[in-house]
Amino acid sequence: MGAMRVRTGDTVLVIAGRDKGKQGKIIRALPKERRVVVEKVNLVKKHQKARPGMESGIITMEAPIAVSNVMLICPSCKTPTRVAKRFTEDGRKVRVCKRCGAVIS
């Protein structure tokens, strides 16, 4: 089980499950559980009890999905891609698009 190749702020495409085909930005990454929370994907209803500063009711929120069900969209070629890790000349490890070879920040 290696490191997750997506991180918070990346745009991803959902490739499996109920929301297959949707795109969104990663709001939160949960590396220990190997899950990510993507905006407007995997929406669930939650019954919330009133607390000080919050109101009660049924709220809609994003639930985590497995990282294996999302694919990173390369910022330069705008296509879903797999990610490689490479070292630069100055010794930094960077993520690289497998399709176009561009460095993903």
TrEMBL record:
Q: Which UniProt keywords apply?
A: Ribonucleoprotein, Ribosomal protein, RNA-binding, rRNA-binding
A Gene Ontology biological process term: translation
Organism superkingdom: Bacteria
Q: Which InterPro entries match?
A: KOW, Rib_uL2_dom2, Ribosomal_uL24, Ribosomal_uL24_C, Ribosomal_uL24_CS, Ribosomal_uL24_KOW, Translation_prot_SH3-like_sf
Q: Which Pfam families match?
A: KOW, ribosomal_L24
UniProt-listed PROSITE patterns: RIBOSOMAL_L24
**Gene Ontology cellular component terms for the protein in this record:** ribonucleoprotein complex; ribosome
Q: Please name the GO terms that the record assigns under molecular function.
A: rRNA binding; structural constituent of ribosome
NCBIfam families recorded for this chain? Answer: rplX_bact
What is the purpose of this protein?
A: One of the proteins that surrounds the polypeptide exit tunnel on the outside of the subunit.
User: Quaternary arrangement and interactors, per the entry?
Assistant: Part of the 50S ribosomal subunit.
What name is this protein filed under?
A: Large ribosomal subunit protein uL24
Look up and give the organism this protein is from.
Candidatus Hydrogenisulfobacillus filiaventi
